[in-house]
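User: Some background: our group keeps a shared notebook of sequences we're curious about, and every so often someone picks one and asks for a predicted structure to add to the entry. Today it's my turn. The entry only has the sequence so far, pasted here. Could you supply the structure so I can complete it?
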Amino acid sequence: MKKLALLLIAIFTVTIASAQGAKSLLNEVSAKAKSYDNIHIDFKYNLNNSKENVNQDTRGDVTLSGEKYVLNMLGTTRLFDGKNIYTIVPEDEEVTISKYDPKEDKEISISKLLSFYEKGYTYKMDIVQNVKGRKIQFIKLIPIDTKAEMKDILLGIDVQTKHIYKLIQTDAKGTKYTVTVNSFKTNQPLSKTLFTFDEDKYKQDGYYINKLD
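Assistant: Of course. Here's the predicted structure to add to the notebook entry:
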């Protein structure tokens, strides 16, 4: 879930990059993402490793507002309220609560994710695809650190909307993690308690609350 959270947040905060003018374009779309009060995305997630004969599909959704988010996937909810991370597993009737430490858990802070590409990657234009009449420009991001676990990231951008349509991350072992956006909605009416964890309610429902130091 943590790796997926990073993928999902990165997907909506990065845009078209080329060798020339990449930084200005990235900053432009990052500013656009910040201008939304909130973003809600329904997505398809695929994990593929041909060597291990693994190919798994699932669906999920995520709602983001500032640094806060709620991610639903594989029957689990991951909530970040700006201070703590709550992993809620109804099947096990368990909630795990961990404190957010920006020094150890940089993936949560959108403000950092918006600038992660500035120091760690090189960029180059990749293929262009036509997806149901939409022009999707793919950009390849390659980590500068040759020892990085990630081999590369392919971002598929809808040229007209400047929204990410697809993200494909390949790790050093050849496993591909693909997120495809089914719907992208902004400035939706949200409950005031969406990013609030009600511990008493879960205790009353019989959940075990596991608080990590």
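Suggested note for the entry: The first strand starts at residue 39 and ends at 49. The two ends are 19 Å apart (CA to CA).
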